Amino acid sequence: MTTAPAAAPGPADTPIEPRGTDDTPGAARLRAAFARAARDRRAALIPYVVAGYPDAATSLAVALAALDAGADVLELGLPYSDPLADGATLQRASAVALRNGSTFDRSVELLRAIHEARPEAPLVPMAYVNQAIGSGDPIGRLGRLAAAGASGVILADLTPDEGAPVEAAAREAGLAVVYLVTPTTPPARRARIAACTGGFLYTVSLVGVTGARRRLPRDVTHFVAQVRAVARGPVAVGFGVSRPAHVRRLARSADGVIVASALVDALGPDGRDVPRMARLVGRLARAGRWSGAQEA
Amino acid sequence: MTVVAPPRPPAGRLGVLGQIAAQRRTDVLTELGDASFRAMRRDARGAAPARPFAERLAASGLHVIAEVKRASPSAGRLAPAGLDIAAQARAYAAGGATAISVLCEGPHFGGSLDDLRVVREAVALPVLAKEFVVDPRQLPQLRAAGADAVLLLAALHPAARLGRLVWQALDLGLEPLVEAHDERELERALRTPARVIGLNARDLRTLAVDPERAVALVGRVPGDRVVVAESGIRDADAVRDLRALGVDAVLVGEALMRAPHPEAMVRSLVEAGAVPDDAAAAARAPLVKICGVTDEAGLLAAVRAGADAVGLNVVPGTPRCLDVREAAALAGLLRASRTGPTPRLVAVTADASPADLARIVEALDPGIVQCSGHEPAGVVATVRRPVWKTVHLDRAPGTPATGQPDPLEAVPGIVAEVSTWLAMPPVEHVLLDTAGGPHAGGTGVAVDRRVAAAVAREVPVVLAGGLDPATVGEAVLAVPAIGVDVASGTDLPRRPGHRPRKDPFRVALFIKRARAARFDRPTVAARPTPVAAGLLDVDARGRWGTDRAFGGRYVPETLVTALEQLEAAWAAVREEPRYWAQLRELGQRYVGRPSALYRADRLAAALARRVGRDAGSLHLWLKREDLNHTGAHKINNALGQALLTRRLGKSRVIAETGAGQHGVATATACALLDLPCVVYMGAQDIRRQAPNVLRMRALGAQVVPVTSGSATLKDAVNEAMRDWVTNVATTHYVLGSAVGPHPYPLIVRDLQRVIGDEAAEQLLEVEGRLPDVAIACLGGGSNGLGLLSRFIGEPAVRLVGVEAAGEGLATGRHAAALAGGSPGILHGSRSYMLQDGDGQVVEAVSLSAGLDYPGIGPQLSALFAAGRLEVLAATDAEALDGLRLLTRTEGIIPALEAAHAIAALPRLLAGGVGRPALADGAVVLLGLSGRGDKDLGVLGGDEASAT
C-alpha cells in the first residue's frame, strides 16, 4: 500500500543567527543560582540525576538528596532510546529507566515534585532534540517542562546552527536553552555560542562522551579560562568529573561544575544507594569552596 | 648504467639554463657565422612540408610526445653509446606516440641536427626540435633539417622577443611550443599567439621537479591553447590524472629512455591518456554543431574532429553565406565522406519563405533545416525535414544599469516559447542565441549565462552565441545545455574582402573542450531537470526538500568542526576531475564497473502470471550491483570515502554496519588503501550475518560488537558516533548510507549515483528509452538514491521505493520509516523515522539486517513528501518469496534487501488504489543492490531438502 505523506511541519524559514534565550526568566533564575554560590565563595555544584532511574520513586529521593547535600542547580536527564552523546553509565541508566516505565509525562511529574519540594533550586532537564521537538509541538512540550518548574533545557545534539526553532519555543515558555562548547570548538565559534547561550554556558571538559574519568585532560583549566574570557554569563564545566580533586581544580576557573555519571555510579549497580551518592555530592560541594593556591 | 649526479646550479639568475643558453649562443655564432635570417629562410622553403603538430594534439584524449634523449644534466647518461636513434623513434611510433621530440643540443644532451634528420626520416609522425633557441636563425635552420615544431623557452626571452620568435616560427611553418615553469613565464607565453603551451614541472634553473607546480598552472591556460605537461611523468596513473585535468599531451623522455621495452611503455601511457570508456560520462557531453562552414577544408576539419552536425549558411547577406550551388556541392562532399561517422548536415536559413525553404531542402538534401530568424509557426510547419529553431535572447549585459529589469524575469517566458516550439513537429531542437545584430540569425555574442542556465534547467536547448574553445568549457559547466553551436569562434582570422574560413585547429579544440568539460564531473547537471531544486540538491545549510524541511545537522558540538571540515573537503573534491577519474579507474579495474544490466524475462513472466498478465507485458531489467566486488553497491561509497580519508589527512577509519555489506566494503577499501579500520556492528546482526563478520576480520578490520539498545544497526550508528566524538582528530567516519548529519547524505548520494547514471545509458542502448519505472529497496537509502538520482529530474519516470514491512505495517513491527513513520530527528538529520509520542526511537523490525533501520535519508523524505517518490512496503514473508522466485527463475540469489523490491513488482504490475497498472511492455528498472549468499540461512529447511 502506498501511504500519502504525513504533513511535515518543518522549520521552513528559520533565521540563521539565533537570538539566544538569556533574557528569559529561566535564564535569570539560573544566573541567580550561580551568583549565590559566588557570594558564598564557591563554585556552584550541578549534579545530574536520571529521571526514573532506577524507578520513579527512587529517582525523586535521589534528586532531593542531591539537592540537600549541596546542589545549587539540578540537571534532570530525560531517558532516551538513542543517547549517542553518552557513555556506558548513562546509556545503561537510561535503558533501565525506560524499561521501568519512564515516559515524558512521568518525567514532567518528577520535575514538578522536585520543584514543589525544593522551589529555590533551578531545575534543568537534559534531553536529546527529538524529545523536545520530534513529535511536533515543541512549544507544548517545552511549556509543560516550564510549568512543572524547569528553568532551562540542555539538548545534547542541538547546536545554535539548528537552534532557532527550539529557542523560539523555549522563549515562549520562558525557558533558557543552554548550549555547549567543547575543546574542538574553534575560538570564533566559541564566542558566538557564548553569545547566544541562555542561563549559563556548558563547557565540555574533554573530547568524548559522558562517563566518569579518573583524570581530566591536562589542559582543562587553560581551556576553561579561554572559555571564561569570552563568556558573558556563568561557565559550568562537565563530562568526566568524578572526584573532589577534579572539582577543586575546576573551581579555580569555572563558575560551576557538573557531575553526572559519577553520581549514577555512586548509586551502585541497583541504583538505590542514595546515601552513598549524597555523601559524594557533599564532598564535591565542599571541594568547590574557593581557597588560596591549591594544586589540582 | 651509471647516473651522473646533476651539477650544482651555477651562480647566475638562470642557473643551469643560463649556462646552457650561454654556451648555445657562442656555438650558434660559430656555426652560422654571418648567414642572414632571410637567406636561411629561403633555404628552409625547400624543406619537406611540415607535418601537422598542434592539430594532432587538439584531437580528443591526452597524447604522448615521446622523446629521444641521449643524456641530460639532471639524469646524466641515458642511452648506451651505440643507441639506434631511428629504432628508438620507430618503437615510440609503434607504441602509439603522437609526436617525437628530439634533443638537438650537443654538449649537455648529446643531441644534434643529424639526430633530428634521422628521426624525421624514420617515422611519419611530426617531430619536435628540443633545442635551446637563442638566435632567430636557428628557426629556419631547424625547419630546413625537417623539424615540424620547435621549443621556445619563455625563461630565456623577454616578452617582445618571445613574441617575435613565435611569429617567425609560425611564418616558417614551424609550430612553436612555448614552455613556462611559473606564473610570470606563463603570462609571457600566453601573450604570444603560440597555440601550444608547455608546462614544465622541472625548474631549469635548479633542475628540481615539482609536479604540483605544473598542475597548478594548467588552470591558468585558456582553453584555446593546447597544453603539454613535461618532466617527471613516469607512469599511467600520472597520465590519467593529467588527462582528467585537461592536459592535452605529455612529453616523456627519461622514463622512456630507461625503459627496457619503450614501445610497450609508450603504449601503456597512450592507453592511460585515452578518453576512458564510460558511457555515463560520455552521455553528459553536449552535441556539437560547427556552423558556417564555407569550404571543403572546413568541412573535412569538422568531419575529422567528430562534429555531430555541420551547418552550411544559406542566409543571403551574412558573412558566411554560400549560394545554393556551393552549398549543394559541399553537401554532396559530406555525404560522400568516409572518414568516420558523418555529421548531420544543417541548412541554416533565416526568415526564408516556404518556397525558398523547399528549394533549399531539394537542393541540399540536409538532415536538418535551421530556422534562425523570426519565422512564424506556419512557415516552420511546412519544412519537410527536422527543424532546429533559434530563439533569440538579449545579449549579456555589460554592467546592468540600475532600474533595468532583472534578466531572470524573462526566463519563464523563454521557457514557454521553447516548449511551444519543441511541441510542434517538425521541430527537433531549439537553439538559444543572441539577438539584435546587423543580420538575421546570431551575433557571435554571448547569451546571459544565468538566463541560459535557468532556461536549460527546464527545457532542452542548444547553446549558441559567442562560444569558442576558450569559453565553451565553462559555459557547458554553467549551463546544462544539451548542445553547443559555434560559428565565428572556430574561424581563422578574418581577411578583409574574404569570406570567413574554418580553422581546423580551433574546430578540433572546440569539440575537444566541449566534450571534455563534463566528462569527469558526475555532479554537474548535463540536461534539463525540471523539478524543484530541493528535490535534487541540498542547500547551504544541508537541507533538502521543497520547503527545505529535511536534513540539517543535529549533532553534539564536539562533531561540528569535523563535519564542517568534511563539508568543505567534499565541496572541493566533488568538483575535482582527478578525484572522479581515480574513482572511475578503481571502479572499473577493481570493482568491476560498469555493473551488468540484465533482462530478467523468466522472472518477469512469473510475476506477470501471478497477476494474470501476459508474459511479455513487462520488460524487467536488473541493475546488478550484486556482481560488484564485495557483492553489493556499498563498495561505491566505501571506496569514495576511503579516498577522501587520505585527503582529509585522517589516518583511521570507522564505520557502522547492519547486514555487514557496508562493513565488508569499508574493510575492503581500507585494505586496498592501507587504512586501519574499525567496524561497529550490533550483536544481533553479528549473529545473523556471520559470514560477513569473518570477511571483515579476514580483511584486517576490527569488528566491535554493540550490545546497547536493540543491538542492531541504529545502535551501531550510535556507537560509531561516540567513537567519532572521541577520536575526531584522527578518524574519518565512513557512514554507510544516505543518512546522518550534513554532508553525509550528499556525499553518499554523490558516490552512489553512478548506479543510475550507468543504468540509464545501458537502457538507452537496449531499449532506446529511459525506464517507465525505477524501483529500489529502501533501508537508509544509499542503494535507493544510487538507482533513482538520475531519474528524479525526468518527470516521465516513476520512482518507487520499497521499504521493509517486517511482520506487517499494521503490527507496528516493521522498518518502514516513510510508510509507517513521521518526521523527527535521528542520527543527526531531520527525516522520516519510527518514533513514539515521546520522540523515543522505535526499534525497527525486519528479517533483513540491511533494511532494519528506523530512519531513512533526508533526500528520500523530501521526495516522498513532495509526492515524487511512491512508497510500497513488503513483509518478511513477501521478501523471502521474492528471493526464492528470482533464485528459481533466473539462477540469481538476491540479497534479502533487494528481494523486497522484487516482492513489490506484482502490485506495481496490477496497479491499485491511486496507482495505475503498468502498461503492456512497460520498462522497469530494478536495483539489485546485492547478492544473497549471506541470506541463505534464512531460507529455511525446505531448500536444504529440495531435490
If you had to describe this structure to a student in words, what would you say it looks like?
The complex is a heterodimer of chains A (296) and B (947). With 296 residues, chain A is an alpha/beta fold. Helix content of chain A is 44%, strand content 12%. Chain A contains twelve helices and nine strands. Chain A has helices at residues 25-39, 56-68, 88-99, 104-117, 129-133, 138-148, 164-173, 187-196, 220-230, 244-251, 261-266, 274-287, and strands at residues 44-50, 74-77, 123-127, 152-155, 176-178, 180-181, 201-204, 235-238, 256-259. A nine-stranded parallel beta sheet of chain A has the order 5-4-3-2-1-9-8-7-6. The model of chain A is unreliable at 1-16 (pLDDT under 50). Chain B is an alpha/beta fold. Helices cover 40% and strands 17% of the residues of chain B. Chain B contains 38 helices and 32 strands. In chain B, the strands form seven sheets. Chain B has an eight-stranded parallel beta barrel with strand order 1-4-5-6-7-8-9-10, surrounded by eight helices. Chain B has an eight-stranded parallel beta barrel with strand order 11-12-13-14-15-16-17-18, surrounded by five helices. In chain B, helix 10 packs parallel to helix 12 (262-273), helix 10 (236-245) packs across helix 24 (577-591) and helix 26 (634-647) packs across helix 31 (744-752). Chain B is globular and about 100 Å long. Chain B starts with 14 loop residues before the first helix and ends with a helix. Residues 1-7 and 942-947 of chain B have low confidence and may be disordered.
